[in-house]
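Q: A reviewer asked whether we had any structural model of the full assembly, not just the individual parts. We don't, so I'm hoping you can provide one. Inputs are below.
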Amino acid sequence: MGDNIKIIENATCTFCGCVCDDMHLTVDLDEKKITKAKNACVLGRAWFAQHGIPDYPQATIGGKEASVEDAVEEAAQILAEAKFPIIYGLSDTTCEAQRHAVAIADLIHGCIDTTTSVCHGPSGIAFQGVGESTATLGEVKNRADFIMYWGGNPAESHPRHFTRYAVTTKGLYTPNGKKDRTVVLVDVRKTPSAPVADIFLSVKPGRDFELAWALRALVKGRKLDPSIEQVTGVSLATLEDLVDRMKNCRYGVLFFGMGLTMTRGRHFNSGAVLALTTDLNEFTHFVAKPVRGHGNVTGADNVLSWQTGYPFGVNFSRGFPRFNPGEFTTVDTLARGDADAALIIASDPASNFPRKAIEHLGAIPVIALDTKQTQTTNLARVAFITATYGINTAGTVYRMDDVPITLRKAFDSPYPTDEEILTAIRRRVQALCGGPAVPLRKVS
Amino acid sequence: MIIPGRSQKQGTSLNAGKLGEEYLEVTSTAELNQDDMKRLGLEDGDRIRLRTTTGESVVRCKGRKPEDLPAGMIFLPYGPSSSQLMASDTAGSGMPISKNFEVEVEVL
Ligand code: SF4
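A: Here is a predicted structure for the entire assembly that you could use as a starting point for your response.
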């Protein structure tokens, strides 16, 4: 370790949607490395430890090293010439960068979509239909005495969700932490999150909707046949006991994960648990929140909503925003073969999309921005390696409960930021497409 | 029935780089119910081929106790192997069915 050490208090981890802003970082400025991340969980420690300065060219065109200026020019030409360009990703970058991506989509009359469409997109659809009874994680920590996780495994995906916000943490009206709370977990398999739960409900795969509907019936005082156990995998007695606890708690929270949105039923599943939450408000205070994955996926929903009126799956081909999941969402525009160019920001669809969508991605010109080389940057016509948000760049991100959090930079990176690259592409696209001259914020 | 999902190892190895060996190994190791494995004559580390109507991928298997993973279920961390198996139809939602779909298991 060098002598040039800097300590950063209250830094923020942007690896998962918990966006923990109590990191205490030890930074070796000579080595450009974070050597210690106090308060981080195992995922956060890996996030900080592994984001040093990589040894990649800042930009490539057709796999060959290029100047950033040339790469910006090539990217702008591709986007301006395309008939059905799409922009995708955005959940691992700052709101400041996301803003420019929306502006580019508007200028090129393209689609803009975020990783939300393949995580809680169905919940976004359900919110529009059913509504959301919501809360911040601060309220949960201080008030909630009944916590339910449904279709999620925070112990592995959001390790500090339990300790910082919802289960063991001590709050104003929950001074004894876990002892003051009842914790319920609903899942199809016993995940590493199960040990924290007082009650574990093993739901039959694909039967979450039926389980939520059965609970709704019981909340409303309807009688159910014991054969509900064959349908849901959970006995009537267990369901009755659960409903009793739900109605009699002081402040209940239902956190739901992708076990609901990624399975058959999708938005109906999310809608069912949101409706159950609404029903419970006749008896007590009850809220529901999706447990969001990437560091700033919630910010992506917020930025798109302010700027277009819709959270994801937006199309500008008629010169105004239209929202239609299934039509303008990225898996669809790729798998159908509609898209003829793609700008991918901070996401790796070439590694995690369905095969047919990946095949089409390989057949069209792709522009990719990422902090590391990925399958997507490897297949891209133009690739930029950018600085890591929250480590090399400041900015704003939204925690999963829609609370904005300001990032602190730990050390400088020689790589440009996503915001800088997107600003440059936006300027050039604007000149090529002749869009309205929107004043651009100067990027420092 | 297969459930692709996140795991802690998938998360930590992802930081090291998605092209790194560890990530690729973690995302191509499937967890199976131990009784199912016994029935198929499989041991930890053996290779199996998973097949759907969309595609196939070859992964290594690892046993989990029946209380933790019911019979007939497979857990696979998200990654290139799970992508191969996923169909792209989103039924007008934008979301492909990414968890709880049927796969055929072939012992290799
Ligand atoms: S819980 Fe999430 S945000 Fe918090 S330290 Fe762990 S990975 Fe980072």
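A: Points you may want to mention in the reply: The CA atoms of residues 57 and 64 of chain A lie 9 Å apart. Chain A touches chain B through 61 residues (CB under 8 Å).
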